[in-house]
From TrEMBL:
<dbReference type="Pfam" id="PF00005">
    <property type="entry name" value="ABC_tran"/>
</dbReference>
<dbReference type="GO" id="GO:0016887">
    <property type="term" value="F:ATP hydrolysis activity"/>
</dbReference>
<keyword id="KW-0813">Transport</keyword>
<protein>
    <recommendedName>
        <fullName>ABC transporter domain-containing protein</fullName>
    </recommendedName>
</protein>
<comment type="similarity">
    <text>Belongs to the ABC transporter superfamily.</text>
</comment>
<keyword id="KW-0067">ATP-binding</keyword>
<dbReference type="InterPro" id="IPR050763">
    <property type="entry name" value="ABC_transporter_ATP-binding"/>
</dbReference>
<dbReference type="GO" id="GO:0005524">
    <property type="term" value="F:ATP binding"/>
</dbReference>
<dbReference type="InterPro" id="IPR003439">
    <property type="entry name" value="ABC_transporter-like_ATP-bd"/>
</dbReference>
<dbReference type="InterPro" id="IPR003593">
    <property type="entry name" value="AAA+_ATPase"/>
</dbReference>
<dbReference type="InterPro" id="IPR027417">
    <property type="entry name" value="P-loop_NTPase"/>
</dbReference>
<dbReference type="InterPro" id="IPR017871">
    <property type="entry name" value="ABC_transporter-like_CS"/>
</dbReference>
<keyword id="KW-0547">Nucleotide-binding</keyword>
<feature type="domain" description="ABC transporter">
    <location>
        <begin position="4"/>
        <end position="229"/>
    </location>
</feature>
Length: 296
């Protein structure tokens, strides 16, 4: 049973149709990415999923364990693009204040989370004096304090350096493993979507593809074997006729399902080529194939 499913969501702001038709399903324990360029409709979708914006049409269904909207917010954590914390309060005060909004969150839990997010050294520093990466860690710490089943992250890495991004993902992956946390991420960082269990590619208010990364790559961004040769016709004659081969300036290019499939091919034509190149498909290639444009 899906934790959450959305069917044919649509949302306009005046004449602007931000979300035209988005359906998606969030299964427990999974890491789901909504990938798309600026303005694709990701944040608007998240706002509808978390209940802060009502769709014009379409519906959202919750798992039976989350019977009504009042209960729903206890099961979710949200990290918004803009922080919702008080800059004048310290990190510890912000988290303690948040903890008081829930029953059963002990001081011990606040300290554990500070420790988990490596924030103890800045715990008594005002939030507004923190670096961007430290702030983001506090934002996420706030969002998971009440142990939500489902965490929404709206472009959490924008503007962060690679070390901070890696650190945040180490913590999130630990939470996924230890607490079975389900994550819904919006991003335009292709490398971030690469680790997701399932990806919805969104463009211009629509889901234009939805699948696992390996399946999306196989369909829209195959591994490509490029053969450098001065005798392309001869090489072609020596290869199975059903291979998807195209001519290039310097030889031939073959689309493959995976890199291992190149081995028998290379064995067949080894004496006829001067060199070869093997390139695995990327998430970038998927987006390019689907939309004809780069994501950023
Ligand atoms: N409150 C609003 N009023 C008018 N237009 C809006 C409003 N919110 C969003 N839009 C428009 O709807 C479209 C989708 O916006 P949305 O923020 O959902 O996209 P996004 O994919 O999250 O983009 P980004 O990655 O830049 O956050 C954009 O063209 C945006 O300008």
């Amino acid at each position: 049973m899906a934790l959450l499913s959305a069917n044919h969501l649509k949302k306009s702001f005046g004449k602007k149709i931000a979300v035209k038709d988005i359906s998606l399903q969030i299964d427990p324990g999974k890491f789901i990415a909504l990938l798309g360029p600026n303005g694709a409709g990701k944040s608007t979708t998240i706002s509808m999923l978390i209940g802060t914006l009502a769709p014009d049409s379409g519906n959202i269904n919750f798992d039976a364990k989350i019977p009504n909207a009042q209960n729903y917010h206890r099961h979710i954590g949200v990290v918004f693009q803009e922080s919702v914390l008080d800059g004048q309060l310290t990190v510890r005060q912000n988290l303690t204040f948040r903890a008081k909004m829930y029953k059963n969150i002990t001081t011990h839990r606040v300290e554990d989370v500070l420790n988990e997010f490596q924030l103890l050294t800045v715990a008594d520093q005002k939030y507004q004096t923190l670096s961007g990466g430290q702030r983001r860690r506090v934002d996420i710490a706030r969002a998971i304090l009440h142990r939500p089943a489902l965490l929404f992250l709206d472009e959490p890495s924008t503007g962060l350096d690679i070390q901070t991004r890696n650190m945040i993902w180490q913590i999130l992956n630990r939470l996924r493993q230890n607490e079975h946390l389900t994550i819904v991420l919006t991003t335009h960082y292709l490398e971030e979507a690469e680790n997701a269990d399932f990806v919805y590619i969104i463009d211009d208010g629509h889901v234009i593809a939805a699948d696992t990364i390996p399946k999306l790559k196989a369909t829209y961004a195959p591994t490509r074997l490029t053969l450098i040769t001065s005798t392309p016709d001869l090489v072609r004659k020596n290869l199975p006729a059903d291979l998807p081969i195209t001519r290039t300036k310097t030889g031939l290019s073959i689309a493959l399902s995976n890199s291992m499939a190149s081995i028998p091919i290379l064995k067949l034509i080894r004496p006829l080529i001067s060199s070869f190149e093997l390139r695995n498909g990327t998430v970038d290639d998927i987006f390019l194939t689907l939309t004809g444009k780069e994501i950023r």
